[in-house]
Amino acid sequence: MADLTHIGPDGRARMVDISAKADTEREAIATGRIRMAPETLARALSRDTKKGDPLAIAELAGIMGAKRTADLIPLCHPLPLTGLKVEITEAPEGGALRVIATARTTGKTGVEMEALTAVSAACLTLYDMLKAIDKSMVIEGIELLEKSGGASGSYRKPASA
Question: Residue 70 maps to which CATH number?
Fold first, then answer.
């Protein structure tokens, strides 16, 4: 199998050749938050703003963004997603909305980037939907929570100390 690197023998960038890898079931879960003022959070959770339901629109934007990951991230392989779910809820610590995306595929490479892209697109859409109310919102904590499948095996983010 060819080296799994984005740098070719000539030192130039290239897409990794994954043709010799086996198809396996793969899943990735990512999360992120958007912090906002209490009144902004209340409006978002009411699902009723001048622009419409910000949570429903952001969930759809996350799905659409994940489907375009290979167009947004250089050298990322286009993947046939077999499942993608984006959920937005009030963050347990309060003062924020939490986005969780779960991406699935059966393929030769993982779906971590698709899950992370879904979270990013959803958070950016929430900002866009709510910026007329609160321009001081902060997007933070976009990270991979877990992944399964593939040669590298499973990963679960360690619990915070």
Answer: 3.30.70.640
Domain count of the fold of the chain: 1
Residue 114 annotated as lining a ligand binding site = yes
In a domain, 29, yes or no: yes
- pTM summary value: 0.90
Q: Are strands 155-156 and 96-107 parallel, antiparallel or unpaired?
A: unpaired
* Residue 123, marked binder: no
Active site residue 128: yes
**pLDDT tens per residue across span 59-82:** 999 999 999 999 999 888 999 999
The pLDDT tens digits of the residues spanning 5-44 come to: 667 778 787 777 788 888 889 999 999 999 999 999 999 9
CB 29 within 8 A of CB 100: yes
Single out the catalytic residue among 10, 71, 128, 134. Answer: 128
**Is there a domain that residue 108 lies in?**
yes
